[in-house]
C-alpha cells in the first residue's frame, strides 16, 4: 500500500480514476484511511464530474457498502 501512496504523491496530478483505485486499495487492505480517502474522493467527484444527484447517491452507497471480500 505504501508503494501506491508514494507513487500517487509523486504524480503532478492524480486523476480521479487513479484516486478511486487508491480508495479501493485502502478498502482491500482494511486501512483506517479508507473512509477519509473515500470522502475526499467524493468531494473531487462532485467538483470534477458534476454528477446528477442519483449518480452521486449510487456511488456514495457503493463506497459505503464496499466489501473487499465480495467476488
Average residue-wise pLDDT: 88
Main sheet overview = none
Give a count of the beta strands, DSSP E runs of length 2 or more.
0
Order of helices and strands: HHHH
Helix content: over 70%
End-to-end separation: 21 Å
C-alpha-based Rg, rounded? 12 Å
Poorly predicted runs? none
Content-based structural category = mainly alpha
Silhouette: flat
Number of helices: 4
Number of separate domains: 1
Strand content: under 5%
What do you see in this structure?
It is a single chain. The protein has four helices and no strands. It has 71 residues and is mainly alpha-helical. It has one domain. The model has no long low-confidence stretch (mean pLDDT 88).
Reconstruct the topology from this structure.
Elements: H1 2-10, H2 16-28, H3 34-49, H4 53-64
Helix pairs in contact: 2-3, 3-4
Descriptive labels:
71 residues; 70% helix
Give a summary of the structure in a few sentences:
The protein has 71 residues and is mostly helical. The chain contains 4 helices and no strands. The mean pLDDT is 88.
Amino acid at each position: 500500500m505504501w508503494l501506491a501512496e508514494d507513487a500517487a504523491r509523486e504524480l503532478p496530478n492524480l486523476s480521479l480514476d487513479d484516486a478511486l483505485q487508491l480508495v479501493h486499495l485502502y478498502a482491500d487492505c482494511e486501512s483506517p484511511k479508507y473512509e477519509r480517502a473515500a470522502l475526499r474522493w467524493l468531494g473531487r467527484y462532485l467538483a470534477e464530474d458534476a454528477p446528477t444527484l442519483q449518480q452521486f447517491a449510487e456511488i456514495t452507497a457503493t463506497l459505503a457498502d464496499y466489501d473487499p471480500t465480495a467476488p
